[in-house]
Design goal:
eight-stranded mixed sheet; 2 domains; disordered N terminus; Immunoglobulin-like; 3 helices
């Protein structure tokens, strides 16, 4: 199923106008409608994609070769689009949908949040998006219970994504991985070692509480990093309603203190207590250094 960007005009015929609705909301509604209609007509028979071949594929990988009871280990969903196609970050920008993972875990297991790689900004037809061109490994920490009686266990994941080029195509896959259970320190899987190492090295670095502060005044968001000088920094909010992608960001550096100020979006909540996102040190660097912002808004 292909969703051409011009098809978004169909959504504008409802009571929600273009001015009152974000691009990604319109695309989401249109995608859901298409999926519901198509789902009633044709069963999903392929592991990858919804109908026919998808321009992206997904694979479930493990960083280690076994599960140790009571320990946390990493699984990763590797989403690989065809050349020229993009998948999306947790905040997709002006259009798109983030990749989602729904886990089916054995009893007593718990899954953490997706550890999103640093996204980059791309433009398609005048629309700005945040995400990935090329393979993206979405790692997730999985915690095993202390008591496991099975010799091996299977973990399943239902993965959905949107991949875009001139058109957007939703896809999904039912993935699974089976690992032995051993009460010894697991070995790193040599087949996946380099991929996990590279991905984890390039994740945004978490900032300590004294390395970040956030304030809001006159509908402007200010992020202060008191321990680093980043004259080319750009902030991307995890919440797509907080700021508009492409909005002018004022960056000032005094000594080792960097301040980023940007206007709040018209869709931003009236009350904001916590701000999460990433500060990309220099978007032109490959790969760029990035820092994870997670701070309460100062009163």
């Amino acid at each position: 199923m292909i969703i051409n960007r011009s098809a978004l005009c169909w959504v504008q015929t409802c009571s929600l106008t273009k001015e009152s609705m974000r691009m990604s909301d319109r695309l989401a509604i249109f995608s859901v409608v298409c999926l519901l209609i198509a789902g009633c007509l044709t069963p999903v028979t392929q592991a990858q994609g919804l109908f026919g071949r998808s321009p992206a594929k997904a694979t479930l990988l493990s960083q280690q070769t076994s599960i140790q009871p009571g320990q946390t280990f990493l699984l990763g969903v590797l989403v690989t689009p065809d050349d020229g196609w993009h998948t999306y970050w947790i905040n997709p920008g002006e259009s798109g949908l983030p990749t989602k993972i729904q886990w089916e875990l054995p009893a007593g297991f718990n899954a953490g949040d997706i550890q999103w790689p640093t996204p980059h900004v791309f433009e398609m037809g005048g629309i700005l998006g945040l995400g990935y061109e090329g393979p993206a490994l979405l790692t997730v920490p999985i915690t095993a219970p202390r008591q496991i009686t099975d010799d091996s266990l299977t973990i399943k994941a239902q993965v959905s994504w949107l991949v875009c080029k001139e058109a957007c195509i939703p896809g999904r896959a039912s993935l699974s991985i089976t690992l032995p259970v051993k009460d010894v320190t697991p070995k790193v899987d040599p087949a996946n070692e380099a991929l996990f190492k590279t991905t984890l090295t390039q994740l945004p670095k978490p900032l300590a509480a004294d390395e970040q502060s956030v304030s809001i005044k006159d509908r402007k968001l200010t992020i202060t990093l008191p321990t680093m000088a980043l004259p080319h920094a750009v902030f991307h909010a995890s919440d797509e309603s907080l700021i508009e992608l492409g909005s002018e960001q004022e960056v000032t550096v005094k000594g080792k203190v960097t301040t980023i100020t940007v206007a709040l979006s018209m869709y931003a909540p009236k009350t904001i207590t916590q701000v999460r996102g990433v500060v990309v040190a220099n978007p032109h660097d490959k790969p760029p250094k990035a820092y994870a912002v997670d701070a309460a808004v100062k009163p």
